Amino acid sequence: MADVDVEVAGRRYKLSCRDGEEDHLRALVRMVDTKADQLTGALGDMTEARTLLLSALLLADELNDLRGAAAVTRNETPASTEIDPAYAVAIERIAERVERLADQVQRTAG
């Protein structure tokens, strides 16, 4: 396992990945950081958790659009634009956990 130091929205993180995948991980982090910068520019400062959550949601939305466009290109019926209820529940739980963690970090730091 390789350790990679990265930065998103001005915060540093140490992530692990398989040996040889460091550059790929850095490229993915740059995508998230770009979204975080766009959000911060548009909405102003937000909590770390909210910035990361909204960045992930914007990237997921772009991926969904690309998948739909690819399906149309292949003359397939695009997948439903509705989110599977199981995914919606999972996303909501993750968002709640991220918010709780962010609150704990803020209380500890404050």
Topology:
Blueprint: E1 2-8, E2 11-17, H1 22-43, H2 48-73, H3 85-109
Antiparallel strand pairs: 1-2
Helix pairs in contact: 1-2, 2-3
Radius of gyration, in angstroms, nearest whole number:
17 Å
Q: Major beta sheet, specifics? A: 2 strands, antiparallel
Counting structural domains, the number is 1
Poorly predicted residue ranges? none
Total beta strands? 2
Structural class: alpha+beta
**Quick one: overall form?**
globular
Mean pLDDT over the full residue set: 83
**Main β-sheet, spatial strand arrangement:** 1-2
Strand content: 5-15%
Order of helices and strands: EEHHH
User: How far apart lie the N and C ends?
Assistant: 34 Å
Query: Level of helix content?
Result: 55-70%
Query: In DSSP terms, counting alpha (H) and pi (I) runs of 4 or more, how many helices?
Result: 3
Can you describe this structure in just a few lines?
This protein has 110 residues and is of the alpha+beta class.
What would you note in describing this structure?
The chain has 110 residues and is α+β, with helices and mostly antiparallel strands. The protein has one domain. The chain contains three helices and two strands. The longest helix has 26 residues, at 48-73. The radius of gyration is 17 Å and the shape is globular. The relative contact order is 0.10.
